[in-house]
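User: quick one, sequence for these tokens?
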């Protein structure tokens, strides 16, 4: 993981060649749309679970998970009972997958990281399930409504 980005930015942080997880995923979706969709669904699940913790993680100050020296994330930096810690553990899995995607996106003539994607998706899905992070609703009538919601 690049020491210059926060783990909570796992999907948007620039990696090799300027590729982020999301941008490399777009390239990966061309030959592997089903797998790319599975990764994207897991990203949305984790992002939704991290949302209530985001301001505390990102902003230094009283009650923040980010202190002056915290540009790398380790569980030791946080209280053991903090609900964000296991979610950041899942973000570590995504962060490692993002590096693999970026490496492939730089040179798409190399073999696609299919096995790594399948293995990590199973692991990430299992972790999110263990943490009780809900899956997305496929029924548009159950999607949240509001200013930034789809279908409005």
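Assistant:
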């Amino acid at each position: 993981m690049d020491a210059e980005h926060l783990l909570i930015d796992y999907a948007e942080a620039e990696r090799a060649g300027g590729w982020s997880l999301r941008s490399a995923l777009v390239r990966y979706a061309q030959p592997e749309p089903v797998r790319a969709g599975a990764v994207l669904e897991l990203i949305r699940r984790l992002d939704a679970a991290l949302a209530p913790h985001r301001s505390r993680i990102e902003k230094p100050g009283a009650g923040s998970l980010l202190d002056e020296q915290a540009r790398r994330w380790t569980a030791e930096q946080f209280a053991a009972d903090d609900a964000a810690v296991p979610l950041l553990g899942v973000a570590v899995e995504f962060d490692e997958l993002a590096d693999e995607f970026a490496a492939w996106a730089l040179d798409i003539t190399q073999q696609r990281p299919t096995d790594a994607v399948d293995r990590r998706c199973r692991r990430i899905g299992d972790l999110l399930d263990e943490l009780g992070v809900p899956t997305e609703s496929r029924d548009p009538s159950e999607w949240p409504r509001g200013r930034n919601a789809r279908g409005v």
